[in-house]
Amino acid sequence: MHSHLIPGIDDGSPDMDTSIQLIEGLRDSGYEKLITTPHLMSDLYPNNRQTITRGYEKLKAELEKRKINMELWAAAEYFLDDHFDSLLQNKEPLLTIKDNLVLVEFSFASAPFDYKEKLFNLQMKGYKPILAHPERYVYFHKKPAIYEELRNAGCLFQVNILSLIGYYGKGVAQMAAHLFKHKFIEFLGTDLHHHRHLMHLQTPEVYEKVNEIAAALPLMNKQL
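The structure corresponding to this sequence follows.
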């Protein structure tokens, strides 16, 4: 429910052949449905509903052409910035994971100073925010109480599967374990961008960690 598979529109797959290879790799790993979520970030990746939908339709058509059996949906990973505020103010319909669920992300440098207000405004428009990879925002690591604040502010949490095995570093892995311990995980996502991610996602260690969490927590992935 978090991946970057539409070719050529963000920092994920650069072309159609790569997209197909990544999807085949996920299929062979046991995935049956993929919700791909291109970045929507005004400065770097100025996507919108039209660019994402157009890319999704092309990718879906290519899967059908090659007779690759994979259920595919497209949403977006919304960067919480001024452009996102304008989307809400203009009542632009957001691309959702399912129903009213919207995937959002913070900057890796620092959280928006008004992130609580942004999350509140999103919910006032009828959406439910899913915060992408909260374990990767290292500026929160020394302030773990902020995770409870975010949840009290209405956020669901999506942890990257590769965070669980230390792919992004020891500190991120420790925070992922902390979120697991406190049952602060609703979704697991691949955040797949490229072949290196796929290679690590296919390791036995990943399967063990995912099964451990799925057995312990009422993950919402199965509802999508």
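Residues 16-223 form a domain with the TIM Barrel fold (CATH 3.20.20.140).
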